[in-house]
Amino acid sequence: MNEVLALSLSELSERIDRGDLSSRDIVEAFLGRIDEVDDRVRAMVRTHREPALREASAADDARRKGNAKGPLHGLPIVLKDNLVSPDFETHCGSRILQGFRAPYEATVVTKLKAAGMIVLGNTNMDEFAMGSSTENSSLHPTSNPWDLGRVPGGSSGGSAAAVAAREAPAALGSDTGGSIRQPASLCGIAGMKPTYGRVSRYGLVAFASSLDQIGPMGNRVSDLALLLEVIAGHDAKDSTSLEKEVPHYKGALDGSVDDLRIGVPRKLFETPGADPRTLALVREAIEELERAGAKTVDVELPHSAYGIAAYYLICTAEASSNLSRYDGVKFGYRAEAETLDEMYRRTRSEGFGREVKRRILLGTYVLSAGYYDAYYRKAQRIRTLVREDFRRAFEGCDVIAMPTAPGPAWPLGERVEDPLQMYLQDTFTVTANLAGLPALSVPCGFVEDRWPAGLHLITRPLDESTLLRVGDAYERRTEWHQRMPSLSA
Amino acid sequence: MSQRYEGWEPVIGLEVHCQLRTESKLFSSAPNHFGAEPNHHTTEVDLGMPGVLPVINGHAVELALRVALALGCKVHPVSIFARKHYFYPDLPKGYQISQYEEPYSTEGAVPVELDGEEFLVPLTRIHMEEDAGKLVHDSAITGGAASYVDLNRAGVPLIEIVSEPAMHTPEVAAAYLRSLHSIVRYVGASDADMEKGNFRCDANVSVRHAGTETLGTRTELKNLNSFRFVEKAIAYEIERHIDVIEGGGEIVQETRLWDDKTGQSRSMRGKENAHDYRYFPEPDLIPLRLGEDLIVSQRDKLPALPHERRKCYREEWGLAVQDATTLAEDRGIAEYFEATVVESELPKLAANWVKQTVLRTLTDTGSSIEELKATPRHLAALLKLVDGGQLTVANGRDVFAEMVETGEDAATIMQAKGLESVSDTGELETMAREVLDANADQLEKFRAGEEKIFNWFVGQIMKKTRGKANPAAVQQVLKKLLAI
Question: What architecture does CATH give domain A3-264+395-482?
Fold first, then answer.
């Protein structure tokens, strides 16, 4: 394997600065890696070979002339296929968006381009980000680079697998109930969901608007810091984006945790169905943080037990609404029919996959006259209680630690007929979305020495710096992030 | 009214959709102008494309606020946008962003004048929402089966003004609508051009036995595109309700379409087909906050309103009810009239001239009052000449016409055209003598008692002065000569 592929964004940036590597070298290396392994991983849905090479040469030229745009200029990244740009099509894992190319650009894509980053391609995902295995893609499933017979997690499974397989040094994903953190955990990489409103959602194909958040994925926590600094910030096009200064995240990574109190919600570790092997790895990771000087304290999150129920009511309600626009009238797939109603029915029946239709049905029901109070309104009340739980917990601690996913990756196909089992993948992650809190997953070992597990860290709103500092400190004391998958079949 | 409907009391409530006069749409930067090529005034936000987000237009909020303040509504410091769902090709997102459980404004009332009586019609609420696009059907153009979607109107800012079911005759409903129409234009919130569809009315109609409280089953009338339609359609619907009930039938709750060609309403959608709109709070927008500063700044921008002006015209300036109503209806006309009164101190004369000559000129030339070269100052000067007898009313009209063309002042035009009244008594006496001398036979008849000859003499003298004489002065001189 080309040694370039093992480098982090920061390391690649340093090599370019020193003149040891060119952007062209780097982009060629990663494109070569995609050629070499993606027929097995199937993380990518589209690769932008020619434009990427052109941009790499242009970046090298600019650097030679002293016009570098910053540390990420000329470095490649891959994007989940729900971030739009006129530069490429966006299918969102759905037949209904086949051939769709937006005439406008997601704010995060514009920001990455302004920082000089090069989009190598778009990554596979569960249709409209609904799923935890990337098997709900209309195109093809993606494999876990650590075990090609297993799922990479989801819905940002393509992004996670691409980074884990070193097809790209970093990726963007989106996280509505764990869609960045769970695949990051299952693929042994770092992934962060920022505070709701920290990153503009403009141009992110909406799944559940009050929960969706774009975030970075990479092989190093410090790379997430670099990327977050680029993509964060207020955007006039997104009314829910926060008007708060973007800190210098990487500057906060000093390796120290001895001033911090880590809250451990012991009860959650008793969640039925959680894999004891994963739990053991997470406990061990918390002990490692203690050895690094952090104090641990017990915290209670009493309403977390209702998190999944509240989450699936809210996200399906919002999804049923957000997906109303796919009606065959204006863009995307249209089934021909004699009448308007028939056209609607057939377009949506044929254009959407099973999981998406299931959620549209659920969400439509949840919002229906006579059920709204019992479901949607009640779920919103629980959401408030969950938020309140965290507020109270953070009076006694700075960061809360728990597992990211309840267990390691499972065999492809094993759970496709069991949506409820699939929904339980989100047990530990949804509460951060419900409360709008920043949360991070960092690799914390391997189950059976084969399948990665993730340590899940959650903190106060807008305190991504602390989150990244803890993740980075843990990474400095461990070697999990340095392992690479062999990609043998 | 109970006599008119023989023991029945109609109950009417109106819902008015009024487009706000903004540069851009409610949630996008696309222009809000009527009459562009189809789909040219759209952005990705109006087209409901994937990943787009709405951003509220601050100017639309200000205009909406102004209407609420003008109508004395309670303004809510925090209100919530909600999504209203239904599938139709003119609704790009599959939902309309509106306000539902928590509108920005509730209560308030519309001051209405009908037949000289002033009263208030109470409001339930006003909320903000976006307009839908339009379908153009081939059947109407070529007879074909295709329909075309035009989304220029999609996302245009609207306020929906909902009255209480508190009106009881079609005439009151029409008067309410006129008053509301006048007010939204007054405060600069809307052009309220019914022909362009920027002021649209639906009516809820029911009847109940006079003296009872419980509301009868209502029907909702749509497609009421003019003040006249509103009155006709409601009158028809009231009669229909009474006929159905008296015939032993029952009114079905439904939406009905008014067809002005047939002069009838027909069923469009029954209750069983009523939409479940599945409202829920719009997660892409934060709650709308209307701070005290904004409220004060918009209240400061409110002009005196038509009902306040009507009162002033009647009570301070002694105008007749009908004149006061006509002059106060349009803000431009009212301000022109008031400026003329202030300059001339001749309210009644000014009222007559504005109501007749000025309004006719506007109709004839198709120009607006603001474009008129004859300003209130010009008109006031003209009125003073007429009032002082230097100019006859008829010649005054000619002077005004000239003024509209050139923008010259009245005195200049009068002198240039030699229209100044002859009121020099010496000169008039000379002319009068000449007329009497030349018509000895007529004089004889007059002396014999034919009194109407007096007016004939006046006419002859006027003729001699080519209309410039002050008729009163002529009469005076003539009376003196005839010693009567």
Answer: Alpha-Beta Complex (3.90)
